[in-house]
Amino acid sequence: MIYDFNDYNFHVWLVLLITFALISLNLIVPKIRLNKINKLKKIDKN
Amino acid sequence: MNKTFNNLKTFYHKLGSSPWFYKISGITIPYVALFSFLFLSIGIVWGVFFSPTDFKQGDVYRIIYMHVPAASVSQAIYYTMTVAAVVSMIWRMKMAGIFIKSMAPIGASFTFLALISGSIWGQPTWGTWWIWDARLTSTLVLFIFYIAIISLYSSFSEKKSADQAVSILTLVGAVNLPIIKKSVDWWNTLHQPASIKFTQSSSISPEMLYPLIISIFGFYLVVLLSGLMAMRAEIAKREINKEWFKNY
Amino acid sequence: MTNLAKRIFYKELVSYRKRSSTYLSPIVFFLITIALYPLALSNDPADLSFLAPGITWICVLLSTLLSIQNIFNEDFEDGSLDIFFSLRVSTLSLVIVKILVNWIFSSLPIIILSSTVVFLLFLPSESLVILLTSLLIGTPVISLFGALAGALSLGKSSILGPAIVLPLSLPILILGTSAVSSFLNGENPSFYFLMMLAIFIFLLPLICYACIGALRLHYE
C-alpha cells in the first residue's frame, strides 16, 4: 500500500501529479479557446 | 456488401465536413468524458492504491500505470497523424489538417509525460535520471518531431499551406522514424551500457496487469476526448465567419 | 529534360561562383568548430583521437546545415522560382540540380578539408579513408533533409531548419561514426556504408517530391 510516505512513494505521487496536470491542461486549453470564440460570436450577434 | 461500402463512403464524406463534425462531437463529448473519467480513475486508483507491491522494485513500480499508457499513446498519436497526413495530401481534406494541428500538442504532451515519468522511475530503480538507452533516445526524437511539427505549423500564416506543409513533414517523419529507431538500436548495441538493463523479462501478474490495461484504455479515451475538444476549438477558430457557425 | 537540367546546372555554378560567402562561410565555420573541441575538452592526443570521428561528423553536419537552408531562398526572393512553377517544366530536375550543386559547393570542400583532422585531432591516419568515405556517402542524405527544411521554411525564421534537419539526420550520424569506430575496432565497416547508401537511394525520390510539394505551397 502506498499510504505511508516513504522516499519511494514520493516518486509515484510526483508522476501522478504531473499526469493529472498534463491531462487537465490538455482538456482546459481547448475549452478556454472555444469559450473565447463563442463569446466573440455572441458579441457579434448582438 | 455494396451497401456497407456506400455507408462507409458517406461516413467518410461526412467526416470531411466541419459542421457535421462540430455537431456530432458536441453530442459525443459528454459520453466520452464520462467513460474516460471512469476508466482512468478506475485504472489509476486500482493500480496505484490496491494492486500488490512488486517484490523486486517495491512501490515505485506503480509509476507503470502512468508511464506505459503515456508511452503507448504517444506513439499511437503519431500513427494516426500519419494517416491524416496521407488523407490531407491526397484528398486535400481540411479536417485532416485540423486533426494534425490539434493532435500534435497532445502527442507532444504525452511524449513529455512518458519521458519524465520514465526518468522519475529510473532515478530510484537504476540510480540515474537519464541514460542513453535506445528506447529513451527514440522517444526523445519523437518528442522533438512533435515540437518541430508544432513550430512549423505556427510559422505559416495561411492555414491551408500550413496544413499541407505539416502533412509533408509528418509523412517524412513517419518514414524516418523506423530508420531512426533501427539505427539507434545498432548504436546501442555498439555502446552497450554496463550494468543497467531496461527490458523487463519477468512476466507481470494478473493483479497488476488488469489495472494496467484499464489505465491504457483510459489514456486512449482521454486522448480521444482532448482531441475532440481541440478539434472543435480549431474548427470554431477557422470558421468563425462562416454562416453555419454563426447560426449554430 | 537533360538539356534543361544542364542549363540550370551552369546557371547555378555561375551564381555560386559570384556569391563566395555561401561556400566560404561553412568552411570557416567548420575550421573554427574543429578548433573549439581541443580547447574545450582536452589537448591530449589520446583523448582527441578517440573522439575525432564523432567531432568531425558533428562539425560537418552543423556546417552543411549553415548553407543548405538557404538553398531556395535566393530564387524565391528574386522570383525565378515563381517563373519555374508557372512554366510547368520539370520541377524535379530543378530540385535535384539545386541540391547537387549545393552539395558540390558546400559539402565537398568540407569533406576535403576534414582530412586535416588527421593532424588537428590526431585521427589514426589509416582510418582517414573510412571517415572520408562515410562522409561522401552520408552528406548527400543530409543535403536532402536540408533542402526539404529549406523548402518548408522558405522565407521564414531560420531556426526551423535545424529543428527539422537534425532529428532526421540522426541515423546518418550514427552510421557514419559507427563505420569509423568499427574500423578502429578491427571490424569491416562495409555494412554501415551499404546501410547509408540504402537510406540515400530510398529517400532520394521521396524527399525530392516532398520538396516540390513544399515549394508549390508558396505558389497556390
Please outline what is shown here.
In chain A, 85% of the residues lie in helices and 0% in strands. Chain A is mostly helical and 46 residues long. By secondary structure, chain B is an all-alpha fold.
Explain this structure to me?
The complex is a heterotrimer of chains A (46), B (248) and C (220). Chain A has one helix at 7-45. Chain A starts with 6 loop residues before the first helix and ends with a helix. Chain A has one helix and no strands. The model of chain A has no long low-confidence stretch (mean pLDDT 81). With 46 residues, chain A is mainly alpha-helical. Chain B has a domain at 65-192 and 206-239. In chain B, 81% of the residues lie in helices and 0% in strands. Chain B is built from eight helices and no strands. By secondary structure, chain C is mainly alpha-helical. Chain C is elongated, with a radius of gyration of 18 Å. The two termini of chain C are 24 Å apart. The mean pLDDT of chain C is 86. The chains are: A mainly alpha (46), B mainly alpha (248), C mainly alpha (220). The A-B interface holds A 1-2, 6-9, 11-12, 14-16, 18-19, 22-23, 25-27, 29-31, 33-34, 37-38, 40-41, 44-45 and B 40, 44, 48-49, 53, 58-60, 62-63, 66-67, 70, 102, 105-106, 109-110, 112-113, 116-117, 120-121, 123-124, 222, 225-226, 229-230, 232-233, 236-237, 240, 245-246.
Share of residues in helices of chain B? over 70%
Integer average pLDDT of chain A: 81
Main beta sheet of chain A, described?
none
The whole-angstrom Rg of chain B is 21 Å
Q: What level of helicity do the residues of chain A show?
A: over 70%
Biggest sheet record of chain B? none
Describe the secondary-structure layout.
The complex is a heterotrimer of chains A (46), B (248) and C (220).
Chain A lengths: L6 H39 L1
Chain B lengths: L1 H14 L2 H33 L13 H28 L2 H33 L7 H22 L3 H32 L15 H33 L4 H5 L1
Helix pairs in contact in B: 2-7, 3-4, 3-6, 3-7, 4-5, 4-6, 4-7, 5-6
Chain C lengths: L1 H17 L1 H21 L4 H24 L4 H6 L1 H8 L3 H23 L3 H4 L7 H25 L7 H9 L1 H15 L5 H27 L4
